[in-house]
Amino acid sequence: MPFVLGADSSSPASPMSTAPQMNEDFSNQEWSDNSEGEEKKGGRMNWTEEENLKLISSWLHHSNDSVKGNSQKGENFWKNIVAEFNSNVPEDQRRKVPQCKTHWTKTNKLVVHFNGCWVRMMRARASGESDDQVMANAHVVYKR
Q: Compositional bias of type Low complexity: which residue ranges (predicted)?
């Protein structure tokens, strides 16, 4: 017997049919993935150039750790990076591990691309060119 729900039926055709009514109001229910009772911030927080530099600096500091080296586990590695990053920014600009990891994957591609431009300019360095001039040339090539 098929399951039929109609306006004129007094009982559902199946004992398992406890389908929610379409006119229920879910507006006062709280749906949150915040496990620590934190307030959910409205909107997206864009990354500033200063924050990008702080994230890169934190990543470099922890990836070049001479004591732990490359034997760090990913979870602890990123927790340490985010802890250092958050200690260097105002409280309203603090980020979580997933935000930093996601942003790093996007930012790292750009950093690697710039590094390639810089290496090419170092190899093509003219006699008497200063480091600042090489950097300026790398910026020009990168922007192209």
A: 7-20
